[in-house]
Structure formats: C-alpha cells, structure tokens
Amino acid sequence: MNVSNKCVLVTGASRGIGKAIATEFAKNGARVAFTYLSSIEKGQALEQELSQYGTFCKGYKSDASDYTSAENLINQVVEDFGGVDVVINNAGITRDTLLMRMSEEQWDEVLRINLKSVFNLTKAATKPMMRAKSGSIINISSVVGLMGNAGQANYSASKAGMIGFTKSIAKELGSRNIRCNAIAPGFIETEMTGELNEEQLKEWTKSIPLKRAGQGQDIANACLFLGSDASSYITGQVLVVDGGMLM
Ligand code: NAP
C-alpha cells in the first residue's frame, strides 16, 4: 500500500480518528495536509508530531462546513503541495437527542458540518484532481448511516447522505480516474464516544463479534488501503470497519 509522496488532505485531524489517519499516512511517507477548527493548540502540536516522519506536513485552521473556506483551503493546499491526490472527509460532530427534543438548530448544525462539508471539500478538490486525471476521495460515514440509531436521527441522516453522495460522485467521476469510497466505522474509542458510561460501553461491546471497541488506527488502516493504488479498481463502495457489529 504505497502512498509515498502522495499529497493527502484530512479534515478534522486535531484528535481522534482524523489524527490517527494523518499519522498513518505520514508514517507511510505521504505528504499530509490536515485541518482543525477549535482545537488550535492540538492542531499545531500535530504539525510538530508529524514532522518526525521526515515528510512535509502542514495544518490549516479551516471550517469544513463553509464553502468559501473549503475552496480557499484547497487553493492553499495546491499552492503549498503542488496538488492533492487523496481527500479524506473526516470532520464530524454529534448533537444526539430524540426527535421529540431535537431542535432545528441541532438538525441544521449536524447536517451542515457532517454532510455539506463533504460537498464543499469534494467539489473544490475535484478541480485539481481532474487536471491531474487521478484522485481518491474517502468519506468517513458511520454504521448508523446504514442501520439508523434512536437518538441520532440528525447524525444518521447525515451519514446516510454521505453514502448516497459517495456513490453518485463515483459514477460521475469514474471516467476521470477519480475514485470515491466511504468507510463506515462502528464503535471507535475517541472523544466523540467518550461520553458513554461503563454500562453503556459494556452493552455496545456485547454486540460486537470481535468483543472490543475499535481504535482510530483501525480506520486509518482502511484509509491507507483506499488512498493507495492497491485499491485502484475499487470505487463507490462502503467499507464497514466495525468488528462485525453490523451483520
Ligand atoms: P472527534 O474525536 O470528536 O473529532 C472530531 C474532529 O472533527 C475534530 O478534529 C474537530 O476539530 C473536527 N471538526 C469538527 N467540526 C469541524 C469543522 N466544522 N471543520 C473542521 N473540523 C471540524 O470525533 P471522531 O470520533 O474522531 O470522529 C471522526 C469522524 O468519524 C466523524 O465524522 C465521525 O462522525 C466519524 N465516526 C466516528 C465514530 C466513533 O465511534 N468515534 C463512529 C463512526 C463514525 P476541532 O476539535 O479542531 O474543532
């Protein structure tokens, strides 16, 4: 899975899954551009951390949910790196509550940050990818986009939307040698899932055949595959990485 010298852009890499993805690509010799929004210190620290792998890495403070910011980001990355080979749309949030209590703001915020961001970055990135006649776009969806989850109507809808978007873009851009795939993680230990108590954690783990929560590294490994030429005949797919939970 050679990604050496490829330019990879990862959104939302200040922590959790995004950080694991950025680190894995840098370890494997890719040049890594990554974004953060509110975690400024963590974002700057990651740029330092990644420099130990001896490849060019740069962090950008950028709001993925804002189209103009996404377009400016891609222009800046192309200027700094000379192009962009792989885009990983990872930035995401939850605002969980039952539909009865869900406010219009909670719906809009989740759809804007999780789904509109994917439109923003993908649309902006396809311009340089079309010029280069190659590219790989990887959208970090979720198993709940495939199976739904009580208390996550907004989040599940955004993650299901990403899957429809992924398949459409795969069909639109396949002839340009631009691939688009989604990854559907199951239960991964990060700050996003850190709010669960011991009891809830036990319940989740019971439903996972591999009997453990996933780690950011598990998702990073799948990204490395979909970002490398080892997956060059794979597009429009949803790779479920969940320890067998969704079967
Ligand atoms: P996390 O620990 O909460 O990290 C979320 C990341 O997204 C942070 O780096 C955050 O940056 C960034 N972010 C949020 N809003 C942003 C915006 N508007 N613009 C740019 N960056 C933004 O979450 P995670 O668990 O690593 O999840 C990463 C992705 O995997 C998400 O899309 C999530 O839905 C998906 N996922 C996670 C799980 C799981 O079990 N953890 C399962 C399925 C899918 P700042 O802190 O700098 O704002």
Tell me the layout of helices and strands.
Blueprint: E1 7-10, H1 16-27, E2 31-36, H2 40-51, E3 57-61, H3 67-81, E4 86-89, H4 104-132, E5 135-140, H5 144-147, H6 153-173, E6 178-185, H7 198-206, H8 216-227, E7 238-241
Parallel strand pairs: 1-2, 1-4, 2-3, 4-5, 5-6, 6-7
The chain binds NADP nicotinamide-adenine-dinucleotide phosphate (NAP).
Keywords:
247 residues; alpha/beta; 7-stranded parallel beta sheet; globular; binds NADP nicotinamide-adenine-dinucleotide phosphate; Rossmann fold; single chain
Could you characterize what this model shows?
Helix content is 46%, strand content 15%. The protein starts with 6 loop residues before the first strand and ends in a 6-residue tail after the last strand. The protein has one domain (7-241): NAD(P)-binding Rossmann-like Domain (Rossmann fold, 3-Layer(aba) Sandwich). The protein has a seven-stranded parallel β-sheet with strand order 3-2-1-4-5-6-7, sandwiched between helices. The longest helix is centred in the middle third of the chain and has 29 residues, at 104-132. It has eight helices and seven strands. With 247 residues, it is an alpha/beta fold. α3 packs parallel to α4 (104-132) and α4 (104-132) packs parallel to α6 (153-173). The structure holds NADP nicotinamide-adenine-dinucleotide phosphate. Residues 11-18, 35-39, 63-65, 90-93, 113, 140, 142, 185, 187-188, 190-193 line the site of NADP nicotinamide-adenine-dinucleotide phosphate.
